[in-house]
Amino acid sequence: MSYVICPKSLFWHHKPQADNYCIRQGFATFFTWNLITMKILQPVTKVLLTLFIVLLVAETLLRLVESHLSGNVAHIQEIPELSAQYDQYSEPGILFLGNSLSNNAIDAPLFRSEMDEQGVVFSVIEKIVPDATTIWSWSCILRNRIFELDNKPNTVFIGFAWNQLSDQSRLLPTRLGGFFCTNTDLMHLAQQARVSSAEIGEFLTASTFRMFTHREIIRNRVAGGL
Length: 226
Description:
Strand 1 and strand 2 form a beta hairpin. The chain has 2 domains: 3-66; 69-225, no CATH class. Helix 7 packs parallel to helix 9 (197-208). Strands 4-3-5 form a 3-stranded parallel beta sheet. Strands 1-2 form a two-stranded antiparallel sheet. It is mainly alpha-helical. The chain is built from 11 helices and 5 strands, in the order E-E-H-H-H-E-H-H-E-H-E-H-H-H-H-H. Helices cover 61% and strands 9% of the residues.
């Protein structure tokens, strides 16, 4: 009399009946594990699906109200409209490019009135001066919003202080990816500065998800409401 042991079984069985028993035992084990797996995965799938829907709705709503988050974000949102003003005229225009320092230092209407008194007329005088920007932000604004115009401003004033025109200044990948630069600009940045893999990941994430781009504003709003 001979005996065999079934896979995944702890019991010995008589040889003539062992083969059939092992097959039945195998099928039972297979379906049992499938049933357990489905019971475990179903709640996980529901949680992941719910989380995805919540994030998708939050991302969509944030994009709709983005311009109301702050005055600086509203100004960034109007950059395409401001730059498009130059294509409305064929005469020369002036662009003031910088950050909050330039915004506080330059009064565009006053500058226009002074130029008019001197007999120097410019069709368009605009300021693009987002907060906390440096040479990296300005280069992306020029490349993506100004250089592509049919009628480019013939004069660009860049207001800066300290090391803001230096290629050693911080990249701030969240602001670059979320507001000013495209993924193509990332290659230009990598050629001109040392960009780490973490900064590349931050740049790409900010260019894709507005919740990530505005995470500091959201955190401050939530903390302020507590």
